[in-house]
Amino acid sequence: MAQGIIENARESITGKNLKIVLPEGNDPRVLEAALRHKEDGILTPIVLGDQGEIQKTADQAGLKLGDLKIINPKYYEGFEELVDAFVEARKGKTTREEAEFLLRTNPNYFGVLLVKTGLVDGMVSGARHTTGDTIRPALQIIRTKPGVKRVSGIMVMVSPEGKQLIFADTAVNITLESDELAEVAIETAKSAETFGIDPYVALLSFSTHGSAHHDLATKVAKAKEVAKQLAPDLRVDGEIQFDAAIDPETAKQKAPDSEVAGKANVFIFPDLQAGNIGYKIAQRLGGYKALGPILQGLNAPVNDLSRGCSAQDVYDICMITASQAL
Ligand SMILES: CC(C)(COP(=O)(O)OP(=O)(O)OC[C@H]1O[C@@H](n2cnc3c(N)ncnc32)[C@H](O)[C@@H]1OP(=O)(O)O)[C@@H](O)C(=O)NCCC(=O)NCCS
């Protein structure tokens, strides 16, 4: 895993006693990660689910629950306050009956309401739920932080030699307009800084500085203009091809005057198909480790796991999530 980022997160959260809710208490990987956190004491894990079912999952996986904190949403004593907060946050879009139903039946909504009401600092879910089902409750209830219109998702990609790159948006927005791409570029650069990476941002395309003429390339070029207007100090270039962005020799040919070409370490893909395919190619063919997706732009941290995640991934993402809460 991305040792630098994980270590930074561990350092920043130590001693802060942050609480992370894990709604998928019936998943053995989630339970194992929660128990390891309980044991390590860097953060406090809280798992959701039925005590008896969780005990069964633990027995089958050879895990000892000890005094791990478990909340069963069905018997939660503060249930009515969560319903109130749900209805209030939805401002007329969800009725009280709908809120009660969702809080009883969908642990992601329950977890998000614990975050919203400040009872926990963040949520990690998605070992058993799709990305959409994991993040929709957060989008609806936690919503974006001030000044941000779109939540987006990044992957931290770590090369076999330990070099760290950031890819976005690999998780949330299926398509983005120029101003939205610009916002993702700015937010991703901020996330990169949080993770200790000095950002050089490439807005990727099949064209470099007008080498091809198409509306899709123009959209990316416009995103760079918007990003520069909004964040004049941001080192950002686009539209630019991946080879010109990453390879100094190609950069000399294709974009000799660029402050980013050949040095890029933050890559903004033009849409979700490109972003998601791109990170998987780096992972499967390039041997890069992929950490994430890590969501950015939310008012409080919620992160999505891949359904193929390991207990170690869950453990690591809990620390990243806690660090985002600071
Ligand atoms: C994120 C996603 C689930 C939202 O889908 P949806 O539920 O159909 O979206 P809706 O348009 O109904 O939006 C639901 C709410 O979230 C908000 N929302 C949607 N996308 C958002 C975004 N990127 N940022 C902030 N808010 C967003 C909407 O404004 C809406 O709020 P409202 O209910 O208060 O009006 C959808 O974009 C999606 O499935 N994305 C791809 C996920 C995926 O498969 N990723 C690849 C695997 S990692």
What is the element layout, followed by pairings?
Blueprint: H1 3-13, E1 19-22, H2 28-40, E2 44-48, H3 51-61, E3 69-71, H4 79-90, H5 96-105, H6 107-116, E4 122-125, H7 131-142, E5 152-158, E6 164-168, H8 178-194, E7 201-204, H9 215-230, E8 236-240, H10 242-246, H11 248-254, E9 266-268, H12 272-284, E10 289-296, E11 302-304, H13 311-324
Parallel strand pairs: 1-2, 1-4, 2-3, 4-11, 6-9, 7-8, 7-9
Antiparallel strand pairs: 5-6, 5-10
Helix pairs in contact: 1-13, 2-13, 4-5, 4-6, 5-6, 6-7, 8-9
Bound molecules: coenzyme A (COA).
Principal-axes shape call: globular
Order of strands in the sheet with most strands = 8-7-9-6-5-10
Order of helices and strands: HEHEHEHHHEHEEHEHEHHEHEEH
Contiguous low-pLDDT stretches (5 residues minimum) are none
Percent of residues in beta strands: 15-25%
Helix content: 40-55%
Structural class: alpha/beta
List keywords for this structure.
single chain; 326 residues; alpha/beta; six-stranded mixed β-sheet; five-stranded parallel β-sheet; 13 helices; 46% helix; globular; binds coenzyme A
Provide an overview of this structure:
The strands form two sheets. Strands 8-7-9-6-5-10 form a six-stranded mixed beta sheet, sandwiched between helices. A five-stranded parallel beta sheet has the order 3-2-1-4-11, with helices on both faces. The protein contains 13 helices and eleven strands. The protein is globular and about 65 Å long. It starts with a helix and ends with a helix. Helix 3 links the parallel strand 2 and strand 3. The protein has 326 residues and is α/β, with parallel strands linked by helices. The structure holds coenzyme A (COA).
